[in-house]
Amino acid sequence: MLDSLDRIERTIRRIERWMPRQGPRVGQMAFGEWLRAVTPAYNWSWPYLVYLQSELERVASGECKRLIVMMPPRHAKTSTVTVRFPVWWMEKHPGLRVIVAGYNQVLANKFSRMSRKLAQMRLGLREERRAVEEWMTQNGCWYRAVGVGGGITGMGADLIIIDDPIKNREEAQSTTYRERVWDWYTDDLYTRLEPGGAVILVMTRWHEDDLAGRILSSDDADNWRIVRLPAIAEEGDPLGRRPGDALNPDRYPVEELLKIKAVLGSWAFEALYQQRPMPAEGGLFKREWFSKFVDAIPADVEARVRYWDKAATADDGDYTVGVRMSRTADGIFYVEDVVRGRWSPGERDKVIRQCAETDPPGTQIWIEQEPGSSGVDSVQALIKTLAGYSVRADRVTGSKQVRAEPFAAQCEAGNVVLVKSHWNNAFLDELLIFPNGQHDDQVDAASGTFSKLTTSVAGLAEFYKSQLEKMKHDREN
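The structure corresponding to this sequence follows.
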């Protein structure tokens, strides 16, 4: 008799495990309240997690359709975004369809198991579909776990979450693998998104050209909202932290983070913990060199140059960049203006002409000449359209880094000043990651401008020197 009762009780417990524990508050709680209800043992009140919860609620409300979350390891980004957020949203939206992706199927299944356990507790699972790769809830929500490269043909989704598409540094350094991730994202995964659906990318940064980097350098970049929370606060922190403050001082105080940095090295720490694929202080160029910004240029300008680095086509991934720089009598170089865009040849030539018309009188124009006869023809045709201006072609030689070194030397000496403008951040970001960045067009244009500017000033000095010698000679005779 006792054995029979035990068997019945075990059967009841098995059934109860698959039954939803519903109550009047299912589907009615705010995300933060829901987190505390389903996982009370966790601390969900740390400021950075509250901030993250608010950003996810913007996704659920439809206010944000594209979100990138960049946070350091072991700071609950996966627990919050990938595991719990889709289940909370399922409660609020019966029939919701979710795809969750990881760098392989094993990782995706790990996410799925954790989410499925919560969904089973809150909503109950359909008897006919509860496999780890694919399951459904009693309120009609559907969940699919997939690894990078996995097939998902014929399946749509209202919410796509991509968590850790790159496994390690070896994969991050592989151009082939990065291309594979990008192709899979654009050709397979993104095409599964239903009209009005949302995409969330959760990751630590491994490489400047990783999936987040590709997205942010694409034409779709303006549609994405970025949540970047470095382990150690920097200037302009979104949480209002002071520079140097830890993201979670209770678990990872600054002293502990610095120990981690000592073990990992600066490159890995800046990528994984600060969400910068290269050190913040830069490569050839250092951040501390650019502390001077001005609102206007002094009157004693000796020479001024605008140098153009042209992209071959509008869709080859490179930018056409025109940097205008001047030098004053005290030997200070002022980066006055940076124009940057991906234009067709006709649009590009029109922009160059407009800059020639609006740049200060006397600005010398130099245009980099591509190798080969087609490069000669292209630059000569452009020069013809700039009749009436001082414009010349420049046939460059040597590596990009060698050409940049003289400019970098003056930056290091504190002789380069930037005029405050909207282009400052993009310009500095490219300089600081050079020569390891995906783009170097602004560096090339700045190096070319500096080279011609110093050459022109030197030539002017030689001219005045020769005139002075001639005057002395005439006076003596």
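The first strand starts at residue 66 and ends at 70.
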